[in-house]
Amino acid sequence: MFSMYHMLWLLIAAALVVLVLTVLLRRQVPLRTVLTMACVMAVLSEVVKVFNTIALVPSQDGSMLFPYLKPQELPLHLCSMQILLIFYARFTKEGPRRTAVLAFMYPTCFLGGIAALAIPSIYSANMVAPSQSFAQPLAYQFFLYHTMLVALGLYIVASRQVALRPRHYWSTMGLLGTLAFVSLYLNSMFAGVNYENGALVSVDYTPNFMFTYQPPIPIQLTTLGQWYVYLAVMCLIACVLIGLCYVPVWLRDKRKNEHEKTDRR
Prior knowledge:
Elements: H1 4-27, H2 31-53, E1 55-58, E2 65-68, H3 78-91, H4 96-118, H5 121-124, H6 137-158, H7 167-189, E3 192-196, E4 199-205, H8 224-245, H9 247-264
Antiparallel strand pairs: 1-2, 3-4
Helix pairs in contact: 1-6, 2-3, 2-6, 3-4, 4-6, 4-7
C-alpha cells in the first residue's frame, strides 16, 4: 500500500476523475446517459473480476476439479452493490424512490470509491503484487472501476439533475445502516467455521462484507468490547463524512428557503 505503483495509480485515478467531470459538465451530459456508460463499465468490470479470481479447486479425494469463486468475491461489498443501484437508477422512472437511490449513491460512490483506492484490497489480500500493478487485468479492473464510482458520485451532485434534499441524508444513513446490519448475517453465513461435537470451536475466515467484522487496515480485535468500539467508530465516521458530503445540499436548500421568504415579502 502506498508503494510507487499505488501512488501512480492514485495520480491516474485523480486525473481521470477531473477529466471525466470536466467533459461531462461542459457538455451537460444527461445523467441517464452517464448511468448507461456506468452500466457498461460495471458489467465489464465484474466479468473481468470473476474470470480473474475464479479458480479450479480439487475435490476432497482429488478425483475432480470444480470452478470456485471465494465468498469474499461475491458482489456484496458496498462498492460492488453499486452495480445493482446503477442499473436501478438507469432503468427506473423518475420518482421519489429513484431520487433516494441516487441520493444514497452520491456519497457512497464518492467516499467508498476513495476509500477503496486509498486502501486497495487487491494488495492487502495478496491478489496482485504491487510490482504487477500495471501487468495484471485485476489491477486495471479494481482501480478503473472505483475511479468510475468516484466520478459518478460527484456527477450526481455536480450535474444538478437530481433534486437532493436535506432529508436524503437521513434516508442515506438509514439504508447504509440497514446494509451494514445485514452484512453481519452475510459474514457469518459465508464464514469458514469448525465444529467439534456440535460446538463451535474456531472460524477460519469471514468475507468481511461492509468491513463490519474486521477493520480494512491490519488492526487486531481481540475482545467483543473492542469490536463494539470499532463499530461505534465506523458509525461515527460514516455519519460525519456523509454529513460533510451533504453540506452543499443543506446550504443550497437554506439559500433557496431564504430566497422564497424574500420573494414573499
